[in-house]
Amino acid sequence: MGVKADLLIVNAGQLVTCAGPGRRPKVGREMLDVGVIENGAVAVAGAEIVAVGKTGGLEKEIELTAGGRMIDAGGRLVMPGLVDPHTHLVFAGSREHELDLKLQGLSYLEILAQGGGILNTVAETRRASREDLVKAGMGYADEMLSQGTTTAEAKSGYGLTTDHEIKQLEAIREIDACHPIDLVPTFLGAHAVPREYTGRTDEYVALVVEEMLPAVKRHSLAEFCDVFCEEGVFGIPQSRRVLQRARELGFKLKIHADEIEPLGGAELAAELGAVSADHLLAVSEGGIAWMAQRGTIAVLLPGTSFNLRTGRYAPARKILDAGVPVALASDFNPGSCPTHSLELIMTLACLYLEMRPAEVVNAVTINAAHAIGRADRVGSIEPGKQADIVIFDVPNLAYLCYRFGTNLVWKVIKKGTVVIERGGEWPHGKDRPVRAKF
Ligand code: IZC
Ligand code: ZN
To answer: Is the model's pTM score more than 0.90?
Structure first.
């Protein structure tokens, strides 16, 4: 008896803690270590994890407070709440008509160059009120939470005027305030050149640098600044200009880098000390080496490759073997990746990035938390961290990576509160045994 707790989870078949090297993300072989405790248990007091260990030991050590709750995980997989470090969560409308265009042979950049793609979502987002955006974003956040995501990054970039960018960032702030999911806001004013600036990219960049960035800073609406650095969108000098100014103003940096064309976005990320370079399908050898040297996190987005159907995926093994820390994200957005399912992303990462299940699990938890500057609070199950925990209805982490297309979540705990409970409504009731192996 001793430590007081008001939530005790026992009998985890595997308790995957993802506990790691502390202040930096995991690299190389560290990514194969997920800190598994067989027959594990976690104790939570208030919003914090207070003890982690084996079920037998912890049951003796912990005193449940009056009204406290014990959850018998019944052999299931218990792991940190998933962290999604790259999403475009808040937008209006949808772009299902692009599916047919894509099947007729148009590429993502061709659709954008014709004034569609992102620019369609920009038109709809400009027409929407802040309340409309909050309503849509809350719905997506609900779905994310029900699939185990407890923290996510969320970008602006569908306003492309100062007022509309601020409206979008305010919507992100409001969703963060009223939804269990914690959101980390990123300003992405340099997401596309708006129609009214066609052929005048440098003038639009000047607007981003001189007006939007200072306004976003003044209202404290974003922690990160990101740029869509891509052929036909923003080149290296334009991206450098935005990110340098953002850094001067105190933003942390991210880059949509080397997704389609090898422009040198990874090199720019390393040069500027960006926290992450995201996508990296076309990254150069030099870019990988430089990221490894600077500790730039590679945020890989296999759902986007899958959905764009180009057959190209980021060279994840090369990136991992070079010692670059890797995180995975959904890239949820209405164009290039209309899914926010990290469960699906985990399977795609195994099958197409050739990442091993343990690497994948670290990449959607602790390394993802590092990619958004939240590793001090979330991303692992350790005493002192926020009690963001997912219980999956599966026996082990390999099973979680191998099944896809169905929601495997059993319970989601956010800041010590059970926010998603599944099981009771199922035909066999709450106490049915963990999904059998077959
Ligand atoms: O709406 O198409 N890649 N930005 C860069 C996106 C995809 C989002 C979109
Ligand atoms: Zn993106």
So the answer is: yes
